Amino acid sequence: MGADDAVLVQRDGPVALLSFNRPERLNAWGSDLSEPLLDALEALRVDEEVRAVVLTGEGRAFCAGANLKRPGRGDSPTDPSGMPSRPAWKRRDIDEAGHPVFDALSHYPKPLIAAVNGYAIGIGCLISVCCSFAVAGEDAVFSLPQVRLDILPAYGGTLRLARFVGRGHALNMAITGRRVGALEALEMGLVAAVHPRERLREEALALARDAARAPGAAARLTRESLDLGYDSGLEAAAEADRLRESALRAERAYVE
To answer: pLDDT (tens digit, 9 = 90+) per residue, 131-148?
Structure first.
């Protein structure tokens, strides 16, 4: 691992720390982050020594949304996810137009904790709610601005958020695009705890060590049990989002 790698990996006994390493652009999302993240998650998944993972960002942001300055790499406004077009990380039956990053995070078999520092905007916000749970620094800011940009929080994004904060809060955030600070995020259930920024990683790693003490199979099956109660609705929501996005593009083209 080099200091210039897009995703940094640090191991400390049973805990691993993954960090997005594009601080010069506030870790704006693109395939240069999604592909190494998937590779790192897979390597840690098969590493029997690692029992819990923390995901965070270098610099002033966790992830400030899609990187729209790199057209042709899955980062344009018509494909804001930055997802690989032909994912090589399929462990479930994922369509090529699907959501390999969201799927890998949502179904990760080990406790996965988002340590949200600074901005978690758009896809950054959705990444945090795909983890097992999240903790935040006092400077954390969450937002889903997609609707204001005339696109959707795709791949079942609004439903993923609603799982944490409830239907009303999720629709409020999605439709208004407003920014939610750390303390409000704690009140609505978006994060499990708020810490001073300088102690965020330390606290998240301590929490991961606690999670790592749980028997691995029990922790995995507990998450699977919870997922089964949700996922029958999520697949349909994600497919519906793809259809709605197509309809929205068609309507936009008709108006123009």
So the answer is: 999 999 999 999 999 999
pLDDT tier for residue 202 given thresholds of 50, 70 and 90: very high
Rg of the chain over Cα atoms, rounded to whole angstroms, equals: 17
Residue 67: closest CA among 103, 116, 99, 26: 26
Which of these, 56, 75, 60, lies nearest to 25 by C-alpha position? 60
214 phi, psi to nearest 5 deg: -70, 140
Report in angstroms the alpha-carbon separations of 218 from 61, 93, 176, 214. 33, 24, 39, 7
Is the distance from CB of 182 to CB of 140 less than 8 angstroms? Answer: yes
Total-model pTM: 0.82
Lowest-confidence segment of 24-33, 103-112, 152-161 by average pLDDT: 152-161
Count other C-beta atoms under 10 Å from residue 88's C-beta: 10
Sheet holding 180-181, edge to edge: 61-63, 119-121, 141-143, 180-181
